[in-house]
Every structure is written in C-alpha cells, then in structure tokens.
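Hi! If you just cloned this repository, the fastest way to understand the data is to look at a raw example. We've pasted two of them here, unedited. The first protein comes first, obviously.
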Amino acid sequence: MEKMVIEGGRPLRGAVSVSGAKNAALPIMAGCLLGGGRHVLRNVPRLRDISTIVRIMEQLGVRFDEGEDFLGVDASDLSGYEAPYDLVRTMRASILLLGPLLARQGKARISLPGGCAIGARPVNLHLRALVAMGADMHLDQGYIHATAGRLKGADIFFDIPTVTGTENIMMAAVLAEGRTVLRNAANEPEVKDLADLLRAMGAQIEGDGGDIITIEGVESLKGVEHTIIPDRIETGTFMIAAAMTGGDVSISGCRPEHVGALMEKLKSAGVGVEVVPGCIRVQGSEEIRGVDIKTMPFPGFPTDLQAQFMALMCVARGSSLIRETIFENRFIHVSELKRMGADIEINGNQALVRGRERLSAAPVMATDLRASACLVLAGLAAEGGRTEVSRIYHLDRGYEALDVKFQGLGAAIWREKE
C-alpha cells in the first residue's frame, strides 16, 4: 500500500492537461455491451476503476485491445451475465452493467455494489424502473437477480435525479420495445456523453441535457468510435489547487461550461479566472474570501468538488457555510482537515468553516476518492514539514497520475510505501 508525501508551501505554476472523465467512461464502457461489433473509445483515463470494469467485462466474454490513444471494446461474443462480488465490491459504478445485460442477454446477476463510504446511494430507483419495463427482479445473498424477455417501454419518474439510474435505464430502454420516457432525469454532462455514444450506435434518444429524456427502442445497435469528454472534477480540482497555493495554472483539454458553478464561486472568493476556448487560467489571490456553497445536481455546485472547496475555505478570510445535499456522509474528511489545523464545525448536513491563515503539515488518512484529493490539496498549501496522505488507493480510482501532474506544476509530491 502506498501513501502520498507532500512538502507544501509552493505555488503551482505552469500548464496541465485534463484526462478523460471517469464518470463518463464507465457508463460508456457498459454501453458497449449493447451492440455487436467493435467500439473504439478515445480519451479513456488510466484508472483503477477502469481496470476493474475491464476485468468484469472480460468475464462476460468481451474482448479488449489497447493502443497508445484508444481502447478497443468488442462485445460481439457476449456470453456471461454475472458481475461477481470480488470485483464489484470496490466500485459503485458496476451497477451500470445491470441495464445493458438485461437488455442484451435477457438476464443479469449483479452483486450489490461497493465503492466510497459516502452514503447509502440505494439502487432501488434502478430496480423499480426495470420492473416497470417488465423485468422480474429479486435479491438473494447480496446479489440482484434479474430476468426478462424483451423489455417494454415505460413512463418512468425518478423520485430524485439519479445519474447512474438515468444512465442505467436509458441503456436498458434503447433495445426495449416501444417508447420509454424518463422524467426528473439527471442532466449531468456524463449523461449526455453516454447519449451521444448510444445515438452514434443507432439509438433514438431525445431530451438528454434536460430532465425529460425520450427513448424509442430499436432492434439492434452497431459498433462506433467515440471520444470521452474531459473530467470536470479533475478540472475543478486543479482550479482549486491553483487558487489554494496562490499559483498561476492554465488547465487545457477541459470544457469550461462544465465547471461554471465552481468558476463563479472562485471569482466570488477573489480568485482570478480567465476562460479561453478549451482552457481555463486560474490565478491565486493574496487573500481568499470565504464564500458559501450548496451542492446541487448539475449545473449546480457538484458534490464531487465539495471536499476540495472546503480545503480552500480552510485558508480563506472569514467564514463559509457548506451545505451538502446529495450524500449524507460526505463530511468524513473534516476530522482529517482538523488534524491540519482547520476550524470546522458540523451541524447535520452543514459545515461551518472558519478560515485560518495557514494549515499545518500532518499525517492524515483518506476515506474516499474526493476526500483523498481534498487532503492532497491541503497538503500542497500546508506549512511546517511533510503531509503524508495514507490509503491513496482511493485517489487512484478517480485521478490519473495526479501526483505526476502536480509535479509538472512545481509541487513537491511523491509516493512512498506505507
């Protein structure tokens, strides 16, 4: 097991390029199960979660080939229908295999998924929608067992917007008989990227990017080439890191329209943000002001940037109120920030952060993916020695070579064995 070691206090300067979006790549790879033929995916990030879904899909009969700038996926000989616990337990997104397998194979056996310990994130919305489309569903010994003939189109209303639920049912519906309407659907960019892939494969989908998505089922889909969108969470993480260290960083390969909520909050905090096509330049300020945030579905402030933004507010002037409305357990990182001198008070789903002049280096432990990034950012800004972040396997699930990219910006950061 490895840890990240950081000697903070160095402003980040230079240019960095963003990798492909993990949260787009995973559903898109699952979507490849729906069509015979070979798919060519570009801008696929090299991450632990990607390796995990490859291993699961290989057990289903999917063939992969890889080049320097592409991943080939061929599901022509899809034969399996089970995603076992020993692989699924590490990755929440494995539930995305349920809809495609049920639509293509007529059956699926998926272990209830694991992943980050940030909240319950129940899959009942997925299961209820598939039952409405004609699936027979039951749970047994930690597995979801699902069978169906050809799924039937249905009118589905999600009680709350769910990204993976929207993606799962959209994939199931493209091969269903008749029309499926998803209401109160998620409109995150990753949902739209999946819809773009499915349309290229021959699916008939309208309304993605809004809260009502309509799908007309088709008989079959074909293999295509598709480029994954850039990772908006990685983009935001570099933006916050530049602001937090008083640096000057140009972030390329990103889509500024995907991080609009963060840009506005950074500007309100006194950070310089300049946008040119495909690039965002962030210049830190000598004095960061405290601002309030509330996590919301896109285009609101993303929950996946809440922990990183909290780290920034720890060194801001004044106080800030952070409200987490998406996941109930997403303040686990607070106790570790306090070890570095942060002044944070939690009350239910709210955290009051009283800014300090500086954070102090300390040994800390990551508890989930985004908390890992939060602690790395805190270490980059901390003074008084080395910050050591243990259990960084969480970090490698969602960030491609983050330490190498920070090194390219002048940070003193490296890995060591625990």
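Ok, and the second one:
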Amino acid sequence: MRDDGLFGPESVTWRVMGEPILLIGGFRALLMQGLHPRAMRGVLQNSALMDPNEAWARFMRTTEFVRVRTYGTRAEVERAGRRVRKIHSMLTGYDPDTGETFRLDDPDALRWVHVGEVDSYLSVARRAGLRLSDSEADQFVLEWRRAAEVVGLRASDVPGSVAELRDYIEAQRPGLRFVPEAAHPLRQSLNVPLPLYLIPLKPVVPAIALLAFASLPRWARRLYGLPATPVGDLWATATLRALHTGLAPVRYAPKVLNIRHRAA
C-alpha cells in the first residue's frame, strides 16, 4: 500500500505546496512569525539563525523539515516531528518584558508560528494566481491541522477555516511587535551568507526578501518600520503573478510521486 503521508496527491496541500512561488510564502511565514515577541526571542536565544557561519545550514534544515512534513511518508513525518518536539521541549527563552523564562514548546508561540505559516502559503498562492475556491482554501487550512500535530499542538487548538485563521490573527495583533534586539531581516538579506556554490544567487536574495515583505499585510509592514501603501500591495500581487506564470513548467509534487513509484 502506498504511503502518501499526512496529505496525499488529492489534497489541496499538495496542489498548493508544489508551486515554486511558495518559496516567497516561506520567507513571508518567517516574517510573520518574527512579529511574535516570544517566538522571535526563542529563536534568537537558542539557534544559530544570526550566526553567519550557521544561518544557511539552519535554513536548509527548516526547509527539509517542511518538505518531509508535506511529502514524506508517515514514518518519515513522525521521525521529523519527534526530533523537533524533543528539541523544543529541552529549550527555554527569557522574556525581558516580563522577566519570565518560557519554554520553546509554549503552545501560544507554536500556534502563532503555525498560523503564520498557513496564512503565508495560502495568501501567496492566491495572490500569485493559483485558482483556489473559497471551499478549497478552507480545506487547505483544515488539512494543516495535521501539520500542527506534528510539532505538538492539538488539531482543535489551531484554526480550521480561513475565517478562523483571520479571526485568530486579528485577535493576536495587539501583542505583536518586532523586538528591538533582533536584526532587521531586510538589512540582513543584503549580506546573506551563502555557500560558495550559491554565491551567484546572492544578488537575488534581497529581491526575494523585498517581495516577501511587500506581500505582508500592511499592519505587519508597519511593525517592521516599512512603508505600507496600496501601491505596495498592487506591486506585490503583480510581481507574484508574473513569477508564478514564469515558473509554470516547474512543479514539485508530481516529481515526488514519480520517484516513489519508480522506487516501489
């Protein structure tokens, strides 16, 4: 029996996540997640994200986790999830605003990270021109409850529809901000550390970061201290659509299926 993991080829998730334009969604997700003070401080205080010598390796590990969670078999997903849950359970962070120590597997922070990811993938996909009905968009959010369980959340604790997603984000907005001790990601993108074989792509990274910022909601751009105008929204949507059209021949999910079938 074929094991298609959490989602499978008939899912909206595979249809959406197979689009290369979702690279921008991944960057946008990191930016959304970075506006939760404890989630951001947990990263700052416990990871090599800000170490120029380690940042790329950490980014690749995160990318691989997303790939496995989306397309891996059940066993692969469980192994990856168990590893992430174990790491989070052993680490803590310090909140200078309250003087409290918090765990990295704090459900509130994990929930915001999950929602930032789901909202970013869905927003970028739809703005790029991927045809998704409202019911399919709701199905995508619902399917990603399975992904929430991988990192230790309960499915019922995260949004199950687009409306619930938007309500949750709106309710969280008063507590969101960009913590002062974090380096601004747009500035970091101007000198991002890359392995030697990717140096030719270095000029492209700031453009990707700029588009990811432009795809954020206006209130989020303001929290990063950036301009937030309707013109920026229009530019982001037009650019996403142009890139999506240009990348149309490239898809990920079908390749995964073909490799698995040959292996079988």
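That's it. A detail worth noticing about the second one: Residues 12-254 form one domain.
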